[in-house]
Amino acid sequence: MKQIMPWLKANLVSVISVAVAIIAAPLMLFFARGWEKSLHNGVEGEVASYVQQLDGSDVNYVIDPYLSGQQPISVKSPPNEATTNAVSSLLQGVVAGSAAAHQKAVEFNQADKPLLIHSESPRERLFPDNPDESTRLRLLDQLIERWPKANADLIAEFRAGSPPDAARVKAVLEDMRAKEIERRTTGGSEANLNEAERQQVLQLLGKTRLELYRQSATELSFYAHPSVFKNVQPWDRSKVLPMSTAWDWQHTYWVHRDVMKALALANTDSLGAFRPVYLGPVKIVESITVLKPGEKPGGGFGRDTGDRSAAGALGGGGGGGPTDGAAEVQRNYTLSHTGRAAAPVAPNPLYDIRYADIVLIADSSRLPQVIAAFGRVNFMTVVGVNLEEFDPVPMLSAGYDTGSDHLVRASLRVETIWLRSWMKQWMPAEVRKSLGIPDDPAANAPPAGSDATAPG
Predict the structure, then answer these.
(1) Is residue 43's pLDDT more than 80?
(2) Segments making up each domain of the chain, as ranges
(3) Which of 169, 267, 270, 416 is the 20 to 30 Å CA partner of 430?
(4) List of residues 6+ apart from 135 with CB closer than 8 A
């Protein structure tokens, strides 16, 4: 003990520390267990409170439709794994369906759209542009030559045409008249005919003329002449054709093609078989006028847009509204009956709009069938109709056999929609720039099967 006391005095601080540690250890263990239990109870209480809040809350699961006419799916329920998985599966189906619907829309809009000037070789392509100036000028010259002929070819392609040539009809009738007079008289002189014989000859000639008209009408879907395309005018070859004008010609040709296809479709039966003009609802096409880019539609159709243009032919930029091609374009029914608009009325990165005014003679009772045919061919909507009475008798004397239907002259305003997702690859640089379309590395990629005469 005597030896321990001096050592304790010398190491008093260490001894006190060890003693405190020995005493504190069980005390800390005792209090730690208390703190653990308290903390556990507190956390457990908070978790129970959150679970109770979640159990008492409802989540509104909403899946918007991706096709017109579909109803949105809306389910309100407490969140749970089964519901979440079901909604996730439905959303994946919507995404896949939306992509498929978009592809179908592009294919529908792009179908049967040949380029007026096209080559498999990039060096011989006019659209979207040709970097070689001499080649571009040569191709523009080819376009000037092809432009009127390509539109005129639409007449025969869709079984339209003119009544029989008046000179040929006259020659046939004169030959028949001479033969009838010779057969009925000894001297072959009309003066030797009595009144009854003269009337018989006249009746025979009238019947023959109608038969000639009917024979010609049997081969036609409707009457139309290349002059119905009011946008097709000769170009002054002393001036270089601008690329923007060349593109407008190409776009206008596509509108002409869709309109002619719709009119021919209207004159088919329920099985898709061709009907001759005297049996179909469309009789005569008097004019087709495609409004120029940005041109304001004339009076008598749609809403009055004041100083704003509702034509919106090339769509595009401008302040406000969506600028992302993936965003929805909201409709504005103060601008048009359909609510659709493009530049210069409103920005629209998804599609462009061209309007066409069509004047035709049609069967009044089947005019709805004619109007419905436009939407079956492409994204076309008749947004205006003006009707007036039409007397077919004067036209019959000119060789137009329109049958026995009650006819009206119908003036139609048609709104046509063009998706940029496939159109922009052919737009010249100056057109893309005016629309605010960024450069696309794949701009020169041709659509499958596209050539000068085949659909793009």
Answers:
(1) no
(2) 59-102, 124-159+224-302+309-320+341-435, 160-219
(3) 416
(4) 123, 124
